[in-house]
Amino acid sequence: MIDVLTENFGTLWQGVLTTLAITALAFVGAVVIGIVVAVFRVSPIPPLRALGAVYVELFRNIPLLSLLILVAYGLPYVGISFSLFTTAVICLAAVSGAFACETVRAGINGVSVGQAEAARALGMTFTQSLTRVILPQALRTMVQPLVNIFIGVALGSSLAAAVAVNELTYAAQQVGNRTAESMLLFLISAVVYIVIALLGGGAGSVLERRLAVQR
Amino acid sequence: MNATRVLFDEPGPRGRRRIAIGTLLVSLVILAVLFLGLRTLSASGELALAKWKPFWQQWAVKFLLEGLKGTLLVTLASAVVSFPAGALLGVGRAGRQPVVKALCTGYIEIFRSVPTLLLVYVFLFALPGVGLNLSIFWKLTLPIILINAAVIAEIVRAGIRSLDRGQSEAALALGMTTGLSMRLVVLPQAVRLVIPTLVTQLVALLKDSTLGYVVSYPELMKQANNLANNTKLLLQAFVVVSAIYVVINFALTRLATYLEQRIRSRPGARPTAGAEPGVPAGGPGAADALAHDVPAALAPR
């Protein structure tokens, strides 16, 4: 039983690293997309608002697996192809970005109206009041929802296994298939995912305490 | 919504001109991108009518309807089992009995941190080895139920926590036992509070059912794959089913938003519910969850 682990440690470790890489890149991408699209959605320019709304409705309603298959196997037909790893990152970031956008928007709406009014009264422009007054305060209330999005990205990255990206779930399945120790390998993978989720949650709590206003 | 009114004044003449210029520029950019995209598509020949027509033929429609039936069946079965099971788990974790509480907490924390696909693989590849070989339907549905029960437990618990304590105190003052007050007073109100989030969770269940693709259960995704194999039109087949998913999920999300607004506008609803960042009231989207995640707005970790 232990042999299986020592012999295949390289494959499994590679899987863990790939999962972490996909998660990290896709999460950063999702946050960036989320902020940009949320700014679109509150901007004074109607077509930008419409664009933001269409983006969110499209990507939060399309199943991730469906998008993965479309990008991995469908787009090559029109001459657009990415590596499987890039495909996973793009799809995960696009879908999670829609959820991040709603989080950011809820955060912006949660900042009290007086703050924005005060910023405008001081003569700040839309961009200034957004970046210097509203977003810094909004980000504070968004830590926990963003942690949940992070965990969602980590768990979602396992779907990349369905399009044969060599990440943790895929590696566990492959090695399990070869060695007939599936149960053990899936158990270990589950523990790794739980640890990732716990670390994400812990980092969120620390960040939240750091960002809290001292009164 | 109100943020759009908050972040900028009613524009004056110069502001209106700027907005008009911005509108024009953005529209041009969007049109240009659309045009380039369509040109790439048509240059590749994938947009040709002949490549989409097969999906209107009777046999293809019947094929897709079959898949839709499978998808709805899996979603419904998962919902029917995981909603009550999740409610029980949530009540158990919110309650006072230490053993029950520890068990429920353990279950919830483990199962909401495990990817659905991994659990599907367990049922698909590992459990048959130890003699547990379920039908394909249950190999798909049982993992979805096990994981979503944990997610729903957290939703219900957040509902219980957001309910005014006076409710359970009043029930206890009337001489009800804790169990009775939970069953008759707290739970009915808590569930009503989280109904929008539960509707959103249906979307997550529907997305989870796409894993039928992995276990070869004939739901929409698998049927799309079969259709792609039969017609050699992979891109078109998956575009068609993606559109079906988006339409269904969009309708459900809309329903959730509508219900949430109705609940919040009702007299007696606690307006402070959104004040603490753990309660599903941070705006229509805040209660959403990713396909495989913990409910976004519910945070009591």
Describe this protein's structure:
- Chain A has helices spanning 2-7, 9-42, 46-61, 64-74, 84-110, 113-121, 126-141, 143-156, 168-179, 182-211.
- In chain A, helix 2 crosses helix 8, helix 2 (9-42) packs antiparallel against helix 9 (168-179) and helix 3 crosses helix 5.
- The longest helix of chain A has 34 residues, at 9-42.
- By secondary structure, chain A is mainly alpha-helical.
- Chain A contains ten helices and no strands.
- Chain B is mostly helical and 301 residues long.
- Chain B is built from twelve helices and no strands.
- Chain B has helices at 2-6, 13-44, 49-52, 58-94, 98-111, 116-126, 136-162, 165-173, 178-208, 212-215, 220-231, 234-265.
- In chain B, helix 6 (116-126) runs antiparallel to helix 7 and helix 8 (165-173) runs antiparallel to helix 9 (178-208).
- At the A-B interface, helix 3, helix 4, helix 5, helix 6 and helix 7 of A face helix 1, helix 2, helix 6, helix 9 and helix 12 of B.
Mean pLDDT of chain A: 91
Order of helices and strands of chain B: HHHHHHHHHHHH
Q: Largest interface, by Cβ-Cβ below 8 angstroms: which chains and how many residues each? A: A-B, 86 and 76 residues
Describe the main β-sheet of chain A briefly.
none
β-strand percent of chain A reads: under 5%
Q: Compute the separation of the termini of chain A in Å.
A: 55 Å
Which oligomeric form is depicted? heterodimer
> What is the helix fraction of residues of chain A, given as a range?
over 70%
- The SSE order of chain A reads HHHHHHHHHH
- The number of helices of chain A is 10
Based on secondary structure, the structural category of chain A is mainly alpha
Termini separation of chain B comes to 29 Å
Strand content of chain B: under 5%
What portion of residues of chain B is helical? over 70%
Largest sheet of chain B: none
Uncertain spans of chain B = 271-301
Specify the number of helices of chain B. Answer: 12
Shape of chain B: flat
Helix- and strand-based class of chain B? Answer: mainly alpha
Overall, the morphology of chain A is flat
